[in-house]
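If you are new to this repository, start here. Below is one unmodified record pulled from the training split, so you can see the exact layout before writing a loader.
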Amino acid sequence: MRKGFTSGSAAAAAARAHARFQMGHGPVTHVSITLPDKSTMELPVECHPHGAMVIKDAGDDPDITHGAAFWAQVELCEHDPAIHIVGGEGVGVVTRPGLQIPVGEAAINPVPRAMIEANVRGEIGTDRGATVTIRVPEGRRLAERTFNPRLGIEGGISIIGTTGIVEPMSLQALVEAIRCEIDVQLAEGHPITLVPGKIGEKHLQAQRPAAQTILVSNAFGEALEYLRHRGVRQLTIAGHPGKLAKLAMGFYNTHSSASPQAQDFVAHVLGLIGTYNTVEEICQAHHEAFDPLATRIAEQVVKDWGFARVEVLLFDMPGALLSESIGGCTPFIRPT
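And here is the target side for that same chain:
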């Protein structure tokens, strides 16, 4: 699969190209940037007096910023040797604590900031400074399809990347977003609640309107591992039993390609006789019978991951609460 380059690399390349232009070297069509590991990568650029632009190429990764234009404008300063990096149109602003960037600053992560500074410095030298403005005209629209609104990053996308290169692995991008959301929830003191997706979130918040949730998709293993790493002792897991039963089966990647269907297991745990096509069919026929499954899920997660207390809520597809159960051996502080 074809690799691409990160939004941080796109911003650094645009900034380097415009810094070179501002130093009087004329517009360029390609620029070589230095990556965090000190290797280099050449990217195509479009350079103008008012700024330089790079089109993001994410390779074969399903990155929502693929094809977006990343602009940089460099203004030289002879009296201040520092390089100041600011966000313009389409670059989000951090509004909640717990991320790598302080509240109130542009959502340009530390590694991209260092890349931008190093590459601009490579053009302007050490005797002068500059203000570098990064903008992404489509950023506000694209951000609606990211985790940014949930993370408290408003007004646009984040400029991210740790290596400068995009590996075609969408799971890794999801895991990084989950970890960021966990960090934010912990920084704000919220109880941790994991849900597979929007349906589980909607059903839970109908029961507990103030609940703050973390969407993990199928990456329960990665989420639970990071929670353990952060020292979390108790959590809530909510969703449909067809998905969450797989946790009791020992499958923490709940994607259908990595785990079996759960209807036979659910029927066995509930002591049912007969054949069922789906877990939802069981939900509708035996909605009062799910306490043993919720308990089994909670106890299995406690056993496998070492948490002190795990609460599990199960909902059917229309949103009816089938069961809530707690596993573990210490008092549970119930989320509001």
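Two things worth knowing about this chain: The longest helix spans residues 7-25. Residues 4-166 form a domain with the CbiD-like fold (CATH 3.30.2110.10).
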